[in-house]
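Blinded run. Sample ID left blank on purpose so nobody reads anything into the name before looking at the predicted structure. Input follows.
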Amino acid sequence: MSIQSEATQTPNPELFKIGAVAKEVDISVAVIRTWERRFNFNPAAKINTHRYYNLEQVDRLRAIKTLSDQGHSLQQLFELNYDELTRRLEVTQVPESYEEEAEAINIILIGRELARSYDDSNQGRFELIDKFRSFDEFVEEGALDHQVQLNDAEMIILYQTTLKQEELNVVRQQTDTPILLVCRYVSKVENDELMDMNVQVSEDVDWHSIGLKATEFKRHQPERTLKEAPRSELSEQDLEVLESSDKDKVIEGRHITRLIDEVRGYEEFLYKNSTTRLQCDVASAITEARVALEKAGTHVIEWQSLLIDDRKLKGN
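Blinded prediction complete.
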C-alpha cells in the first residue's frame, strides 16, 4: 500500500499516520518519536492519540534519513529546511556503486547484537580484526592492552542499548581510533559531546545502514597517523646484561641487542612519518617484530641471571 493510499484512511487526505511515514522513510516508529523529542520535530496534527504528518514532513524525513546514512549530523540536518536538505543531497549524493568501490574498513566489533548478526555478506565493506560479545569481554581478554591490534583497527564499532559514557571513556584513554556507536537513544547534548570525542552515532542496527554510516565516517577522518612508538619492555640495564651474555656460542646476546636497536630506530622513524594505511600497517608489523626480539632477549637475560645466582651459590 502506498503512502498516498494510506492517506485516504486519515481524517485529512493530506496527512499520514506515523506508521505509514515510518514505512515510507524506512525507519522505525520509535526513531521518529525519538527525533520528535530530540529535535522538536512535531507532527502536523494530533487527532485523539494519533500523530499525523504532511507530505513536506515526509519528504524532509526521507532526505534527513538519506543524509544521516551518509554520516551527516542529525542535529545539523534538522536545522535545515527541505530546500536546504535537497541542495545538500545534490552535493553529497553517494553513487550506487560507492559501497563496492570503497576500501574495506578494518574494524573491532563489540556487542552481542552486532556480533550475532555479522556475517560473510559484510566482507568487502569491512575487514574484521576481532569481535567481542560484550564490552566486559573486550576488557577481560586484554584487547585494550593490545596496542598493535588497536593500531590496526581503523574503526571500533560498539553496540549499546543505552549510552554508557564510561565505556567510551575507557576506550579513549587507550586509543584515538574512531568509534561508531550503534545506539538508539542518544540526546542532542550527548551527541554533540560524542562528536568532540570522534564518536559517530548510528541509530540503525541493520548492517546496510551501519556500512553506509561507517564508510562516510571514515571519509571524514584525517589521514591516519601513529602516536609515539610503544615503549620498550627492556630497560637500559637489561640491555647491558643482554649485551654481555655471550657464554652460549650459538646465542650471543650482543647480536640480539643490535637487532633490537636497529629495529627500534626504524620503528621510531615509521611512527613519526607514517600517514598512509600501508605505512601504518608496516609500522605496526615492525612493532610486533621488536616485541618478539625483546621477548627473545628476556629469555637470555633470565638465563644469564640464573648463571649469576648459581655462581654466587658456588662461591659461598
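Unblinding after everyone has recorded impressions. The beta strands are 15-17, 45-47, 50-54, 105-110, 126-132, 155-159, 179-182, 199-202.
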